Amino acid sequence: MSTTTDYTVTGMTCEHCAASVREEISEIPGVTGVDVVVESGKVTVTSEQALDDAAVSAAVTEAGYELA
Ligand SMILES: [Cu+2]
Question: How far is the CA of 13 from the centre of ligand 1 (A)?
Answer without folding.
Answer: 5
